[in-house]
Amino acid sequence: MGPAALNPVAMSSRVQLWSDALALVVLVTGLYALGAALPLQRMGYGYAVRFELPAAGRKIGLPKIEGPQDASRPLVVIDAGHGGHDPGASGMGYEEKALTLGLARTLRDRVLAGGGIRVAMTREDDHFLALAERRDIARALGAGLFISIHADSAGDESGITGATIYTLSAKASDETAARMAARENRADRINGVELEGQSDTVSAILADLSQRRVREESTELAGLIIREGKGLMAFHPTPRRSAAFVVLKSPDVPSVLFEAGYITNPEDAQRLASPEGRQRFAEVVDKAIRVYFARQAGA
After folding, report:
1. pLDDT higher for 133 or 191?
2. Would you tell me the crossing angle of helices 266-273 and 96-114 to the nearest 10 degrees?
3. What sign does the dihedral 231-233-237-243 (CA atoms) show?
4. What pLDDT shows up at residue 155?
5. What is the DSSP secondary-structure string of 252-285?
6. Mean pLDDT, rounded, of the chain
7. Burial readout 228-247 (b: 16 or more C-beta within 10 A, e: otherwise)
8. Residue 283 burial (C-beta neighbours within 10 Å; 0-12, 13-18, 19+)
9. What residue ranges do the domains of the chain occupy?
10. Considering only CA atoms, which of 135, 141, 84 is closest in space to residue 246?
11. In CATH, what number does 75-296 get?
């Protein structure tokens, strides 16, 4: 049969298919042109956030150590929480990353002014660091203490106030600590002992002993901060808590996470942002650090 004998229904179907395909091409082309022409970012449709990640296998860039040149002097690493594309909590017109950096800088200056202790900061400006990078900086530098500074959030409950100090534990001390850790979150060498080449049993014993000591010393520092802050700082009714914070999971560096106050509370936020509030914070923590290191030295 020749072309003239084709079924009219089949002809109609083919024409419809071609029409649908052409309409789809026109639609896609039109949408592309529309997207190129309209400033979608300015209209509030900027849904993509791009930031650079470190190259795979790249070593952590270690920060400078300030203070005495004598390497035998104790070293504290101060970690300003969040940073870069991660602002942390927000409230009362403030971002957590800015408040924590201000507190960290003031504490660094206070410790250096007192002399005798070396200081390094995980970040001195507004850039992003992964949680593991922060704790690994302290380990790589051989720090004697690691203090991570944060500002808590209570959501719509603006009446909650006060500072809280967290230490590491596998099981959270309470529901609030578990929620906080959830929101925020086998080394080759422990305390100078190479684990490589050791039997699994020996390695496990070394790791357990080191972690037990670190937990005890972290708890000691937390207690000293509360003691030195009595009458100077406002603490939460439950000021000491524990949870499985990633940033605290160092097997050989005593570490605490200091929630210096609630960014969602007007009084706390103003205190954390003011020069007077930052100085008081630094005074309390500096005293606790010095007592801690003096005890460690047997003084």
Report:
1. 133
2. 50
3. negative
4. 84
5. SS-EEEEEEEETTSHHHHHHHHSHHHHHHHHHHH
6. 80
7. bbeeebebbeebbbbbbbeb
8. middle
9. 10-48, 75-296
10. 135
11. 3.40.630.40
